[in-house]
């Protein structure tokens, strides 16, 4: 029977297909939140923590007692007795915090909100819990002994990656550890003040009372120094993470104008703006947004110029954003503006400090965000979006021509395809006879209706544009050739599209590249698509309705309380800078719709040298 | 709320798209009619001819076929020409248009019609019933040209074969753009015709066209108005020419009384009308040499020097018109070599020219008064003489013109002499 | 009140007066004008400019001596019942005008731009646009109108200018039409269209002071009168009186007529854009004013929920008449009879009541 069984089993093993034994695949299920403990578990938790804290304290007390015994056993140990006194003082101080009520209260708190304890061990333990040490390898804790009499134990905590290691070694560790052979009595006076004013050559030092301050500073890149027996921590400025150097602006190139663009570091950016406006009026307020990302934002404005209501509103909006993480200033912009649902941008995003400086001097404010090289400038109107940074570098006529060209390009890209659709379908009488016959002849061989052609070409163009952005640099040139040949030549030769459609879409696309602001270009593109649909249904009446809807929506749009079409509707004093750019010396008033505090920015005769005598002698003739 | 709005918007969009785009026609679903011709057909009906454009690069070469259409009509494709003609016989152009739809694969579109060619027979019977169709139909625009032709409109359209233009529309438009400057024919479009017809003052007129047999035979259209004139007046179809140029030509003016055609003005008379209307910018003229009248002549290029001043006087029962015409002339050709460029011969020549033009204009006025028509528009100058519009409506201004006395005074000045300012005698060895 | 209109200035007021008074030049009032005044029809806008200014000053006087705007003035000067009747009349008149305009503009769009569309669908398009514009609020509506005005002016001057080679100046003679007395009568007869000068007075709450209202109405009315006179004169010079009396759309015919050379012709498609925008704005504005008065009359906290039902009802009513010709004749008659009451009669009554009150007060 055994043999039969064995054979049977062997045969079975041979013949029957056994699927490979794999562990089940990983499926992501609901996480068990740490905060989901029921009340009784919570109480047990806190009781355990309380117990552990008391145990640690007890251990410290017993260690001190043992040390006391040892010291008093030997004679002539004044220094050690002094050190012992300090230790006892520290223990007494710590006992105050160990009363059950206070202990229970502090344990129930978020560990971050606890005060800095006078015991180094508690502090470090708390820090390690907060930072998930030892799993989190970014938190470095360095124990040092400051050579004083008696020697002071201290621990230095910092987050690697955010600090400049040279500064830590040179201006924190070196002065403290190499204090010189002279032994100093540190504990006689206020030890913190002594350290800060005499022994820590860092450019910014402050004191922290709660662990939250400590962790906030650590997250920014500072280093925290804990001293045994002192219930505060010293925060030393050691910020120095790696960042990009100041380069040319990536998106807004200009022929004539400063060639520096913002980087990702907040302080560098504010410094760049300040280098353009060297006045003490320029105020930078720092706020934090994002509850987990704790991103720093700088609100910059000229105090003597800007309307104080505007500043208050901006601060109010920035302070009342409840979100987790804000990564880019574009996200912040959408949190801040009046109607984020409208694709038309209600704040200007720019990479150039000279534009920011010019906007600030007109009475606008700028929000810079740490980690983003784009600044948000608000409030704006539609015409500011058409101004390029270098408009003021050229003569009045040249710059005006540029602006008119941009506006005309925007109008063209908006209307051209829809006008073509409307006229070929519904109003062929609007074309010259020869053109109508040429279009009819060209369309003879194409199998698709005109609307479908335009839709296909628009889609192809959008694909090309998107691909051009995403493609790695090496292949960029290929796209140009491929796109041009495929879309242009081959499609026409294969009679898939007619050459007129290609022309129209190409001109429209080119015109849309003349719009300086990228978000505005996106908005205009979206509007153009809806116009095309309206034109295909209703002809020119549809285009008229679309224009009316767009104008109506733009009229009711506000950017931080300033109407979007400001110098035109409502009619305010326009100044010479809306469409045509007047001469540089005639820009006397700030834009009226911003209601600045100081309306005049130039004297009425700006070039006062024209009224004075010239330098040399007068011409004989 | 937003979901509700989105659903509503979706419903709206879908229902709109389901309606089928409201008659938007693809560019290749339409056939553009370029010229319409109207003839008289027996039985009180009208023969309407349509000349339809064939777009370049379109399918189908010029095949031979004649496709029958309508009742007894005939159509045909010209060999290799970019247009088709299609003739239909029905009581009125409105009906014919409907029939056109069933003889062509595409919808006819009349928004690019450049000319309506009407035969003289139809015009003599009254043109207004024919013209109401283009007036009311929204596809016609009032800038189509009205042309009256000698003989049959269908023949004219068929034999009109422009040698320089590729499309027929362009032919008519360029012809009538600069042509009237010479003064041998004038252009009228539907708007001018109808407004002159309906408004008191002035009578309508139309360009007169015809087919030239191209045999070089001279067919003058009447005697010369004055002995100073060297050349003969002509009418359409009578110019002596040969060659490969198109057989169609436009000379003369068809004049109307009310909406009925009453006569034709020949080339000289048409030029006189044009002079009085200040439309001449480069007309050519030949004058018998005053000092050597047997075989020499002088050619001029004339233009209106100043707007002709026409004044009207209605104080007596009969209206009296005074026309003061200034002509600037440029000597183009001088066969005799006499020094006409300087005085005293210049005054002689100027007087000769003035007498010629005066005679032509007076002859024209007499002819039109006889026919009972007022192409120049003298009646218009009577309008300010009336107290108000009601009185104006009671009077027929053309009848007043017929009974009027017209005094014409032409002053010709020779301003330029071309490249030569005097002719030196040749020396024979 | 949540429908408090907001802050408007001189420019917006100008727009509010210009658009309703100007819209009729695109419609068929021109031929009827020509019936009465013949070659001097271009004088009629100026003829009724003068009494409109008198009405304006009367209303400003009324506003000076009462508090608030038109509605409050009525309440103070007239008894409650009469106030209610007056306001109902105005609501009725504005809605009637809006309905007539919807019908005429829809028919005209059908005639000129989209000949094969179903007529109801064009009305739906207009309804949709009008509802959207009213939802935007009076501020945005007035600003949009204000932006559109230069384009209108430019378009009209372009059309009138490009027609220059085709004018017969003598068609404007005899200069006094059928007699100056008839011209005056004609001017008064078509003056009902100036009912729109009431609009800034009704919305007086959103203007800064009476001087803004005065400036707005004077400039708006002046601009509208001059442009209308220009267009009518150009029409007469191009067509003459009898041909002008036949057409349904004089401005469209004028735009079609443009022919400079082979290339500058066929421009009427652009004029379609112009007058369809003007039509939508006028209808939206008039319905807005009617709704505003309705809200004030019944003390409603807001009138936004009423917008869609009212517009739909008016659109349905506008589709009732059988054909366009009866609408045109009715419109002409209504201008003469119904609108004049609102334009002249009621302001006169208010003026008398206000001056009586002032006299009484001064007497005590």
Describe the structure.
- The complex is a heterotrimer of chains A (621), B (429) and C (364).
- With 621 residues, chain A is an alpha+beta fold.
- Chain A is 47% helix and 10% strand.
- Chain A has helices at residues 2-15, 39-73, 78-96, 100-108, 120-131, 165-177, 191-199, 211-220, 266-276, 308-319, 329-336, 353-362, 396-425, 433-443, 450-470, 476-493, 499-512, 518-538, 540-555, and strands at 139-146, 152-159, 205-208, 223-227, 233-236, 282-289, 295-302, 348-350, 365-369, 375-378, 558-559, 562-563.
- In chain A, strands 1-2-4-5-3 form a 5-stranded antiparallel sheet, sandwiched between helices.
- Chain A starts with a helix and ends in a 58-residue tail after the last strand.
- The relative contact order of chain A is 0.06.
- By secondary structure, chain B is an alpha/beta fold.
- Chain B is 27% helix and 28% strand.
- Chain B contains 11 helices and 14 strands.
- In chain B, strands 1, 2, 3, 4, 5, 6, 7, 8, 9 and 10 form a 10-stranded mixed sheet that branches. Chain B has a 4-stranded mixed sheet with strand order 11-12-13-14.
- In chain B, helix 8 (267-276) crosses helix 9.
- Chain B starts with a helix and ends in a 13-residue tail after the last strand.
- In chain C, 73% of the residues lie in helices and 0% in strands.
- Chain C contains 16 helices and no strands.
- The two termini of chain C are 36 Å apart.
- By secondary structure, chain C is mainly α.
- The model of chain C has no long low-confidence stretch (mean pLDDT 84).
- Chain C is globular and about 75 Å long.
- Chains B and C meet through helix 6, helix 7 and helix 10 of B and helix 12 of C.
Features:
heterotrimer, A: alpha+beta, five-stranded antiparallel sheet, 19 helices, B: alpha/beta, ten-stranded mixed sheet, four-stranded mixed sheet, 11 helices
Q: What is the number of E strands of chain C?
A: 0
The class by helix and strand makeup of chain C works out as: mainly alpha
- Side-by-side strand order of the widest sheet of chain A: 1-2-4-5-3
The assigned structural class of chain A equals alpha+beta
What profile does the largest beta sheet of chain C have?
Answer: none
Distance between the termini of chain C: 36 Å
Anisotropy-based shape of chain C:
globular
In DSSP terms, counting alpha (H) and pi (I) runs of 4 or more, how many helices of chain C? Answer: 16
Poorly predicted runs of 5 or more residues of chain C: none
Strand tally of chain A, please? 12
The span between the termini of chain A is 138 Å
Q: Roughly how much helix do the residues of chain A carry, as a percent range?
A: 40-55%
Low-confidence stretches of chain A: none
Mean pLDDT of chain C comes to: 84
